[in-house]
Amino acid sequence: MKYFDIEGKEYKLVIGNGEDDIYRRSFNALTEKTFGFNFEKWYQDGYWKNQYIPYSLMDGDKVVSNVSVNIMNFEVYGKTKRYIQLGTVMTDIDYRNKGLARVIMEKIIKEWKDKCDLIYLFANDTVFDFYPKFGFDRLSQYQCEKLVNIENGHGYAKKLNMSDKGDMSLVFEKANSSASFAKVSMLGNAELIMFYCTLFMNENVYYIQDYDAVVIADFAEGTIGLLDFFCKEEVSLDKILNYMVNENIKKVKLYFTPKETSSYTLTQLGEEDVLFVLGRDKMLFADKQFMFPVLSHT
Predict the structure, then answer these.
(1) Residues 9 and 113 in one domain
(2) Tens of pLDDT along 60-100?
């Protein structure tokens, strides 16, 4: 246990794992207050594992500031990498502008910068000036999209029930053992995929029996947003899309970068969720038109 004196007040640093009920309740309360969701269901479902590590400053038994470390393995342009993504960056409104987040960031960077190939995070325009102070550089990301020009009605995609234990197990198994279909592909972090599939995307999960594939997709205003798909065997993206489109779909937008992009238009993303990077793999991405899979965001 480590303590920090900040502006004459003592704060306790807790490196959390969710198992302490008092800590978890306070952590969830600040997450709910800051972002409008919490991690309780994810914990109760058994998906909060040791890849997700909150670093929290506490005032007594109350979490007042936090930055979470997410240990992530990726296949990046054909090579396996160990990255650290920072997420759940939050400070209680009554404790802001005191330097609490800075203390946590400095602690994490010192502890992890030599243990990984890259530290990265996503931020909105309210904090663009904050992260460069720690050596982070901003990189652009690009999204693939194209008009639909493939056959409709090729097959059937079954919508899964993410309250059903059998369907949950199916998604977990596929996400944990999928082949890599993206230039930057998250490996072996099915727990994070389940966070999305049981909370924000619980109505967007499908199964294609012909390919034994799980697909996460959103439909809106004539566009299919393909978040990701998981399949043990190599299968072309167009074959997956053939099962998902209908006569109302005019466009496809991908929320990852496929290995083959020649048939897609790449559009630079705006400033809603900007990528900041720090570490030896920074130059690997500097001249690439890519995006981290949206379902890998924490």
Answers:
(1) yes
(2) 999 999 999 999 999 999 999 999 999 999 999 999 999 99
Q: Give the residue among 160, 180, 184 at the shortest CA–CA distance from 172.
A: 160
Provide φ and ψ at 198, rounded to 5°.
Answer: -100, -5
86 and 187, same domain (yes or no): no
pLDDT value of residue 207: 98
Q: Considering the chain, what percentage of its residues have pLDDT values greater than 70?
A: 98
Q: Count of alpha carbons within 13 Å of 144, Cβ hemisphere only?
A: 24
Residues 209 and 120 grouped into a single domain: no
Residue 182 is part of a domain; what is its CATH number?
Answer: 3.40.630
